Amino acid sequence: MLILIFVDQDNLLIDKINWANYNDEEFTLFCNALLTFEVGKNYRGFSAKGKDGGIDGSFNGEYTGIRGLWRFQYKFRQGTRREEVNRLKGSIKKELSSLNNENVFFLVTNLEILPQELKGLEQTFAAEVARLKKDCVCLVWDGAKIFTLCLQYPVLLYWLLEGFYTAQLQGYQSVFRKNCAIPY
């Protein structure tokens, strides 16, 4: 569970984001927006339904001093945190088997991960990459990291709390149809 703090002129409001209120599709929309804002306009997120071949997003360029071809994988998990972190280890092996020529594998999850669990994920990654004879680095953003980044982009907080479709540009016909009693 993440805690959001909104400062208003008169009050300090604390609101919690409970990831149990969201689903995989909403997490994908959230990640695609966050990564486009953070990584840049060359980030390419995929959200079509169906088998994605282990690619939820891609990027060819430089971010945080690392240049190359990037593969992003989102893992939205609900359930017991510890069990879900263990499931992530298993899914890393499966995801890495579909690596092509990417030199960065970027895992984004809503789970909050402890330092020793992150180390375990990194060890699993390193062992699997060595077994596959690939040249690739792994980066992980957990729930705490994506929350911290999200604070830089208030529109993401708005989308997350109010719904991902409320801030979208809409045609005037749609807006008036929803808000007027006059049928069109």
Brief write-up:
With 184 residues, the protein is α/β, with parallel strands linked by helices. Helix 2 runs parallel beside helix 3 (115-132). It has helices at residues 24-39, 81-96, 115-132, 143-150, 154-162, 172-179; strands spanning 2-7, 12-17, 44-45, 57-63, 66-75, 104-109, 137-141.
Descriptive report:
There is one protein chain. The chain has 184 residues and is of the alpha/beta class. It has helices at residues 24-39, 81-96, 115-132, 143-150, 154-162, 172-179, and strands at 2-7, 12-17, 44-45, 57-63, 66-75, 104-109, 137-141. The strands form 2 sheets. The chain has a 5-stranded mixed sheet. Strands 1-2 form a two-stranded antiparallel sheet. Helix 2 (81-96) packs parallel to helix 3. The longest helix has 18 residues, at 115-132. The protein is globular, with a radius of gyration of 19 Å.
Structural class: alpha/beta
Low-confidence stretches: 1-14
What is the succession of H and E elements?
EEHEEEHEHEHHH
Major sheet characteristics? 5 strands, mixed
Shape estimate: globular
Spatial strand sequence of the major β-sheet = 3-4-5-6-7
Assembly state of the chains shown: single chain
Q: How much beta, percentage-wise?
A: 15-25%
> What's the total count of β strands?
7
Radius of gyration: 19 Å
Mean pLDDT rating? 81
Number of helices: 6
Termini separation (Å)?
43 Å
- Proportion of residues in helical segments: 40-55%
